[in-house]
Specification:
This protein is mainly β and 212 residues long. It has one domain: outer membrane lipoprotein receptor (LolB), chain A, CATH 2.50.20. The chain is built from three helices and 14 strands. Strands 1, 2, 3, 4, 5, 6, 7, 8, 9, 10, 11, 12, 13 and 14 form a 14-stranded mixed beta sheet that branches.
């Protein structure tokens, strides 16, 4: 999952944007009021679950992660590169990773390799990227709920943009040099449970590791 993150490893990349500002319903219902960024970050990270789509682009290419996080220790979904997918799940202290398959391949007969994991919150892009909002200074926030700041490290400067929709962070953008990250969070509190696909086979990972 981390191939494209190596070029900007000092920025674990996060999330920003708009999952919809609300809008009037029947002409009388107003959009929910946006909470401050720090409160939205806490609300999002403390939610029981959420879905996320993370697109990372570098000079080496683009990959998109389609994931669901379930508190306190589950994360699952797939990483897509072109027409190929690798399914990855973290449940407790165990990580399950499939061999890379065609994007239209059935998930009923996937073989997953089991190995020790660092934990779902350590790997989860939302947890990694939202944490930068807590340490930022000189944050510019618009009335629409978009907050922007920059961070510099090792001679590189990253521009972080977060959008708050109601109580939660809904989207995030990060750009640094020729690399970028776009993350969208949705279904906060209503995401489906995280579990291996039905019919999947689990085996112990070989000593040399799992190769896609």
């Amino acid at each position: 999952m981390n191939d494209l993150r190596g070029t900007i490893s000092w920025l674990l990349l996060v999330l920003l944007g708009v999952v919809g500002a609300g809008g009037a319903v029947l002409g009388i219902t107003e959009a929910p009021k946006n909470v401050p960024l720090h409160e939205a970050v806490d609300n999002t990270l403390n939610a029981p679950n959420y879905s996320e789509v993370v697109t990372e682009s570098t000079a080496q290419g683009t990959q998109t992660d389609y994931l669901t996080y379930q508190a306190p220790d589950k994360l699952g979904g797939y990483v897509e590169n072109g027409s190929k997918r690798t399914y990855v799940y973290v449940i407790g202290s165990v990580e399950y990773q499939s061999l890379t398959v065609s994007a239209n391949a059935s998930t009923k007969h996937l073989v997953f390799y089991r190995q020790t994991s660092q934990g779902a919150t350590t790997i989860d892009p939302v947890h990694n990227y939202l944490r930068y909002a807590k340490t930022a200074t000189h944050v510019t926030t618009t009335a629409g709920g978009t907050s922007t700041f920059t961070l510099s490290q090792d001679g590189e400067t990253g521009t972080f943009v977060y959008m708050v929709s109601g109580k939660y962070v809904s989207e995030f953008n990060l750009s640094v040099k020729a690399a970028s990250v776009h993350l969208v969070i949705s279904q906060v509190g209503t995401s489906p449970p995280v579990a291996l696909p039905a019919g999947a086979k689990v085996v112990k990972a070989p000593a040399t590791g799992v190769s896609g």
